[in-house]
């Protein structure tokens, strides 16, 4: 553990103060040996600026030496701290005598506190904690003196001012010219007077009340300007002169900070400060309100918002940061016209926010991701284990997600949780995670290129600590973090320590976290309030790499934080243009392929060279007639959203807790929500199923890709693509097994079974093979996707026919057909290389040839009954349900040996219990379905019922119906448990779309949704129909047998069935559920084809709300 930092001396006694003053006196001679100190240089620059602007040059006061300036600043610190506790009532009239004035002031303050209706203020007034006096004490010839109200602390003062601004009490507002503000410093008074003069001059020029002042800034009011009050032009503000009219052409000129204190005039400008030589940077800030970081991104001057009260002159204040050398001297103006805001940034950019449930804020997160931050840190995600990463990632692979969710139970409610979204370019790697009572923590490493081309790393720790967290949990967290601290260690998160004063590095009570930060010499970089009047969200680091810490767009009631790390950002990957097949000229491509003489071109070539000729010819056509994509320089969000976001960013950077910043943030959030609704409406109105499924996939399905950091079998971390490729190749080669070549027995011709022979391939077989391919833009080694074969299927039959027959006759396969693009797919969330499985992406032409051969070989084996009867996989006429139904009554022994008993086993996606019940399986699929329903309502904003019902039918209902022939419940509890998913979905849909409430049967009737019980019964009848007609091959003697009636009845048919057992033997068999309805169907439909039978069954009215239904209405 590094040594504790040396504590700075405190003025705890007069002796200590005398020692410090004596020490300064011994040093001031050396400091004053320079021609001028920094303060005098700034003063001279101020005088030169005034001369350029045409103002009368004032004679500068005698220059102060450095020691005197420092001593004066120390003496003034107490005075400025007292100003932070005072409010000023301007315009309060006085009485004829001081006694009457005092009594009138007391009565007015009592009435004001009573009108504010705040118990704490009234109690403080009664206890004598609120004092007041007129300033100055002697009236002299001053017309009106201000009334100063003194509070015990700054927090109470701010609460008092906030109530006055929000409630606008008549005690203050009923008299013109009355207002209450905070007690201003001298330089702030000058700013206010300058803004008042500018407002007066502008109002006089336009002849109306259009401009005013707020917080020492010039603002423009909304709407049409009101007429000037009577005599307005004859009552100029104090300090007004005709010279003020010279600034009317550009009123926004007040961009420097003027400071007047004891006859000393100076200009402090962040751009000309030298932190290493500025002795004032080591002092405590003299006035912390208002605090504006001049290095904020987007804090350009002259920002104009025409839709609300707008700040004409953004005035920076003195910013004496705890670590001023970490602040860059200037920041570029804010712009988000590019697709990635930080695409050209030289540093790693980070965004932090307390989301307070990310489920309903995916549209905000998507916008933040579009800005191109390298890291996005989120606290209070409120996600659980049932929520997928689609909330965070969507379907794009731009980020890698790391999560630590709160484990909820009966005692621990929802909330908490942290998540980190990191660009894969940083090669992030999860180090550890921690969870305790009220605390969640994630620790990752990011890697970036250094000057030596080696990868350097920074360890990032994201923490959420609940306000109700116990001391033992905090101790456990610090014990968890302690061994993980590296050379560059950054802590970020919502720690909820409002009592710690990070400016003065003090804590009113013993705080383990504060001691931990001091022990490791970490610097806290957030100097603005993140929630209310407190700094709850922190950015701490033990090295000097944090830059540009500024407030940003809030996700909830906490101000978000954007900052950067002073390390080189990773280089952008090379852009590889892709073919835009939806813009291809397929007519020209097909025409050129058809007009080519393939017989002449391929007749003299062998199989290998014929395949190469065909591939090169087709690729040359695609290069000519298929356009390629280019890197888009613009964001996919509309311009008005980007402008509104820029305004919100500027307002947050200037005053994060102001009403204007909150208003702009709400406006942007509403506009972004409206934009999402419009996108959804356009997809719905287009009637394009592909566009709808693409939108749903983007919102509901997260991308699956290999994580950036891979752990090799020997435990080493692999980060570069070359190392990963070699490791995957080595691992897949080690686990793959070569096919077993058993010695073939000499073939003995069978008198009954002919030998298999495929003399040639026909064009019809090729067209059937092409039709079996999904028309998509897939990757393949020959760069010819399925969509190419689907669009040009009639043109390419001729060359494929020649190549396929050459391959058959020559007994050779082209080498490219044996190659594949191997894609590692992670089966779990682990980074270990052993958890990946290879997926081989072969050529599309290989799949066509393979399907033709498989079809012929399977047909030969089926025709001569050469398949084993128990084989269910890879055979037509079999499915998972037939396999389970065949084993339903025969499991128990294999070759006479009893099987070992297991409480449950997962077979082809269905969880089967030893008791032959499916309670666990139903609970599992219901949980998944409810999570998907939640995701639908969180990711969509439209009020169109059709969108939600289609999304439910596409993404939720299949989860509840897969394999239902096997596990369909026969108890009331389980049937209603499943039906509760659709019941809850329809209720929430009606609330979302503002449809009047109705009962469940009426809701699903309006949505054209049958009950899930009805759909399961339909599946049973369809399965029974295919089984009777032989479309499914399995032993059904234990399930049912045909038993036509001896005499003909009106509602009977020849395919009537009976059970081969007594009814109580099985209540959950599909035959038991469907036999009554099957036997009463008309003979016309039971003998029809599967497609016609399905159409007839689906056209029948719902049969769920009958007397034998298990549903409770």
Task: Report on the architecture of this protein.
The protein is α+β, with helices and mostly antiparallel strands and 1113 residues long. It contains 33 helices and 33 strands. The strands form 11 sheets. A 6-stranded mixed β-sheet has the order 14-15-13-12-23-22. Strands 16-17-18-19-21-20 form a 6-stranded mixed β-sheet, with helices on one face. Strands 2-3-1-4 form a 4-stranded antiparallel β-sheet. The longest helix is centred in the middle third of the chain and has 28 residues, at 659-686. The two termini are 67 Å apart. The model is unreliable at 1-12, 33-39 and 243-339 (pLDDT under 50).
Question: What structural keywords apply?
Answer:
single chain; 1113 residues; alpha+beta; six-stranded mixed sheet; 33 strands; 38% helix; 14% strand; disordered N terminus; Endo/exonuclease/phosphatase domain-containing protein; catalytic activity
Strands of the largest sheet, in order across it?
14-15-13-12-23-22
CATH superfamily placement of the domain at 335-534 and 562-572: Endonuclease/exonuclease/phosphatase
- Secondary structure tally: strands: 33
Q: What is the percent of helical residues? A: 25-40%
Q: Which value, in Å, is the CA radius of gyration?
A: 39 Å
**CATH architectural name of the domain at 335-534 and 562-572:** 4-Layer Sandwich
What's the average pLDDT? 77
SS summary, helix count:
33
> Which residues form runs of ≥5 with pLDDT under 50?
1-12, 33-39, 243-339
CATH T-level topology of the domain at 335-534 and 562-572: Deoxyribonuclease I, Chain A
Structural class: alpha+beta
Strand content is 5-15%
**Main beta-sheet strand count, sense and barrel state:** 6 strands, mixed
Q: How far do the termini sit from each other?
A: 67 Å
Please tell me what the overall shape is. elongated
């Amino acid at each position: 553990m590094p040594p504790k930092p040396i504590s700075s001396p405190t003025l705890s006694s007069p002796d200590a103060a005398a020692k410090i003053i004596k020490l300064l006196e011994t040093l001031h001679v050396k400091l004053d040996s320079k021609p001028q100190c920094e303060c005098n240089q700034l003063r001279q620059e101020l005088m030169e600026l005034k001369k350029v602007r045409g103002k009368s040059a004032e004679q500068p006061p005698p220059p102060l030496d450095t020691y005197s300036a420092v001593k004066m600043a120390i003496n003034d610190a107490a005075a400025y701290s007292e100003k932070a506790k005072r409010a000023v009532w301007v315009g309060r009239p006085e009485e004829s005598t001081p006694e009457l004035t005092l009594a009138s002031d007391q009565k007015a303050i009592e009435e004001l506190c009573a009108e504010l209706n705040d118990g704490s203020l009234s109690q403080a007034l009664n206890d004598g904690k609120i004092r007041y006096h007129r300033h100055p004490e002697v009236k002299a010839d001053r017309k009106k003196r201000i009334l100063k109200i003194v509070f015990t602390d700054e927090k109470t003062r701010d609460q008092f001012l906030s109530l006055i601004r929000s409630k606008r009490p008549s005690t203050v507002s009923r008299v013109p010219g009355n207002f209450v503000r905070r007690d201003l410093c001298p330089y702030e008074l000058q700013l206010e007077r300058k803004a008042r003069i500018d407002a007066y001059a502008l109002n006089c020029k336009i002849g109306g009340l259009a401009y005013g002042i707020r917080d020492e800034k010039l603002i423009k009011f909304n709407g049409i300007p009101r007429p000037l009050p009577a005599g307005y032009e004859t009552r100029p503000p104090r300090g007004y002169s005709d010279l003020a009219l010279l600034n009317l052409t550009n009123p926004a000129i007040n961009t420097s900070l003027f400071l007047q204190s004891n006859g000393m005039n100076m200009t402090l400008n962040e751009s000309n400060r030298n932190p290493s030589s500025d002795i004032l940077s080591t002092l405590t800030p003299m006035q912390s309100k208002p605090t504006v970081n001049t290095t904020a991104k987007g804090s350009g001057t002259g920002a104009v918002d025409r839709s609300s009260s707008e700040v004409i002159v953004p005035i920076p204040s003195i910013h004496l940061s705890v670590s001023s050398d970490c602040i860059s001297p200037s920041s570029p103006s804010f712009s988000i016209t590019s697709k990635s805001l930080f695409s050209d940034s030289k540093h790693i950019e980070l965004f932090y926010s307390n989301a307070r449930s990310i489920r309903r804020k995916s549209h905000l997160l998507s916008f933040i991701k579009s800005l191109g931050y390298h890291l996005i840190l989120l606290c209070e995600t409120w996600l659980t284990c049932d929520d997928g990463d689609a909330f965070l990632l969507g379907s794009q692979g731009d980020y890698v997600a790391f999560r630590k969710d709160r484990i909820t139970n009966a005692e621990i409610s929802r909330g908490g949780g942290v998540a980190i979204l990191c660009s894969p370019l940083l090669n992030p790697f999860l180090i550890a995670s921690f969870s305790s009572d009220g605390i969640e923590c994630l620790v990752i490493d990011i890697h970036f290129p250094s000057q030596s081309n080696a990868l350097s790393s920074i360890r990032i720790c994201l923490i959420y600590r609940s306000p109700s967290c116990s001391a033992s949990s905090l101790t456990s967290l610090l014990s968890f973090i302690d061994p993980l601290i590296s050379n560059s260690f950054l802590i970020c998160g919502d720690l909820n320590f409002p009592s710690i004063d990070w400016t003065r590095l003090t804590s009113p009570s013993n705080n383990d976290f504060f001691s931990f930060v001091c022990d490791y010499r970490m610097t806290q970089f957030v100097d603005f309030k993140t929630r209310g009047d407190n700094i709850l969200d922190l950015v701490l680091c033990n090295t000097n790499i944090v830059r540009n810490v500024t407030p940003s767009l809030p996700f909830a009631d906490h101000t978000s934080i954007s900052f950067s790390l002073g390390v080189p950002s990773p280089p952008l990957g090379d852009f590889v243009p892709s073919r835009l097949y939806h813009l291809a000229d397929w007519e020209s491509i097909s025409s050129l392929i058809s007009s080519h003489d393939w017989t002449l071109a391929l007749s003299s070539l062998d199989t290998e060279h014929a395949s190469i000729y065909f591939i090169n010819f087709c690729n040359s056509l695609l290069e000519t007639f298929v356009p390629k994509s280019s890197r888009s320089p613009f964001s996919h969000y509309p311009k008005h959203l980007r402008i509104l976001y820029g305004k919100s960013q500027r307002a947050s950077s200037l005053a994060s807790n102001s009403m204007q910043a909150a208003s702009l943030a709400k406006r942007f959030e509403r506009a972004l929500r409206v934009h999402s609704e419009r996108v959804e409406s356009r997809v719905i109105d287009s009637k394009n199923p592909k566009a709808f499924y693409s939108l749903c996939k983007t919102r509901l399905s997260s991308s699956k890709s290999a994580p950036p950091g891979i752990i090799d079998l020997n435990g080493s971390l692999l980060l570069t693509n070359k190392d990963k490729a070699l490791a995957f190749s080595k691992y897949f080669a080690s686990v793959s097994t070569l096919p077993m070549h058993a010695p073939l027995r000499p073939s003995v011709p069978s008198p009954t079974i002919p030998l298999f022979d495929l003399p040639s391939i026909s064009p019809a077989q090729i067209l059937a093979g092409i039709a079996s391919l999904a028309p998509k833009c897939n990757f393949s080694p020959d760069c010819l996707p399925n969509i190419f074969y689907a669009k040009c299927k009639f043109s390419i039959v001729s060359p494929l026919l020649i190549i396929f027959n050459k391959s058959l006759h020559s007994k050779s396969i082209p080498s490219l057909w044996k190659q594949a693009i191997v894609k590692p797919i992670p089966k779990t969330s682990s980074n270990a290389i052993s958890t990946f499985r290879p997926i081989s992406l072969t050529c599309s032409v290989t799949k066509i040839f393979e399907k033709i051969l498989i079809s012929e070989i399977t047909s030969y084996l089926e025709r001569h009954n050469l398949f084993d009867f128990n084989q269910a996989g890879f055979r037509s006429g079999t499915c998972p349900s037939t396999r389970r139904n065949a084993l339903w009554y025969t499991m128990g022994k294999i070759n006479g040996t009893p099987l070992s008993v297991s409480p449950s086993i997962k077979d082809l996606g269905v969880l089967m219990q030893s008791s032959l019940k499916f309670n666990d399986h139903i609970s599992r699929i219901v949980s998944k379905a409810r999570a998907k329903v939640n995701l639908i309502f969180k990711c969509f904003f439209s009020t169109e019922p059709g969108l939600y019902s289609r999304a439910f039918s596409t993404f939720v209902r299949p989860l509840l119906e897969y394999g239902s022939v096997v596990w369909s419940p026969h108890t009331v509890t389980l049937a209603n448990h499943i039906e509760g998913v659709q019941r809850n979905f329809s209720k929430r849909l009606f609330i979302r779309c503002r449809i009047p409430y109705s009962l469940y049967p009426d809701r699903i009737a309006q949505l054209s949704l049958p009950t899930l019980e009805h759909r399961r019964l339909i599946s049973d009848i369809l399965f029974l129909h295919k089984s009777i007609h032989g479309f499914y091959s399995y032993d059904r003697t234990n399930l049912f047998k045909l038993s036509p009636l001896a005499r003909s009845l009106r509602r009977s048919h020849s395919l009537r069935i009976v059970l081969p057992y007594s009814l109580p033997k099985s209540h959950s068999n599909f035959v038991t559920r469907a036999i009554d309805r099957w036997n009463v169907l008309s003979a016309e439909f039971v003998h029809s084809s599967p497609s016609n039978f399905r159409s007839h069954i689906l056209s029948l009215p719902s049969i769920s709300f009958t007397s034998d239904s298990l549903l409770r209405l």
